Amino acid sequence: MAGRYFEEFVVGDVVRHAVTRTVTETDNLLFTTLTMNPQPLHLDEEFAKDSMFGTRIVNSVFTLGLVAGIHVADLTLGTTLGNLGFEDVTFPHPVLIGDTIRVETEVLATRASKSRPDTGIVTLEHRAFNQRDVLVCKARRAALMKRKP
Fold first, then answer.
1. Hey, what's the torsion of the CAs at 130, 136, 23, 46, to 10 degrees?
2. Long-range contacts of range 141-144, CB-CB < 8 Å, 24 or more positions apart?
3. What is the pLDDT along the chain (149 residues), one digit of tens a residue?
4. Other Cβ atoms within 10 Å of 12 Cβ, number
């Protein structure tokens, strides 16, 4: 498996993921319309020109999805059994069309599952930055991970 097993997560480790992603207008348009979000801040440049941002901003749920996906190849590909929950999700700065996002993940906690002896729970904090190293998203999540066979 490409992902880490429960025993391979060490509290305090920070992984800087090699995969980065430039957010395109198409990403924002498709995600926003697929999720039935008619917010003009995401879709209407003329409307957004008069906003505090001066331009369209990328749908924050897309940003969260990108952050949750970029880390997969390094940490959870084939070794996770699912997300148990996200908490403390913040977007301190908007993502703009054309921003390139990079993500780092810190291991905050690990504990063996009490009900499933072949699994463990890992708490991760994902932090996303744009190309100017401005924090654009921070999210804490708990993942149910496989233990080594």
1. -110
2. 141/68, 141/83, 141/84, 141/85, 141/86, 141/87, 142/83, 142/84, 142/85, 143/76, 143/80, 143/82, 143/83, 143/84, 144/80, 144/81, 144/82, 144/83, 144/84, 144/113, 144/116, 144/119, 144/120
3. 689 999 999 999 999 999 999 999 999 999 999 999 999 999 999 999 999 999 999 999 999 999 999 999 999 999 999 999 999 999 999 999 999 999 999 999 999 999 999 999 999 999 999 999 999 999 999 999 999 98
4. 7
Residue linked to tokens 């001066």 = 54
- The CATH H-level (homologous superfamily) assignment of domain 6-146 is Hotdog Thioesterase (3.10.129.10)
Domain locations in the chain as residue ranges: 6-146
pTM for this entry: 0.94
